[in-house]
Amino acid sequence: MKQPLIASAWLTLTALASTPATATVDGDYPYQSCFEIASDLHQVPLDVLLAVAATESNWDPDARSHANAHGIMQIQWPGTARHLGVNRVSELYNPCLNIDLGARYLRELLNRNQGDLERALAAYNYGPTRIEKAAHLPAGAARYVATVDKHRTKIKGAPSAQTARAQTARAQTVAARGVMRFDHRMRAEKFAAVLNRQISSADFSSARSKDGSFAVTMTVTQTGLSPADVRRLRTLGWPGLEKP
Question: What amino acid positions are annotated as catalytic residues?
Answer without folding.
Answer: 56
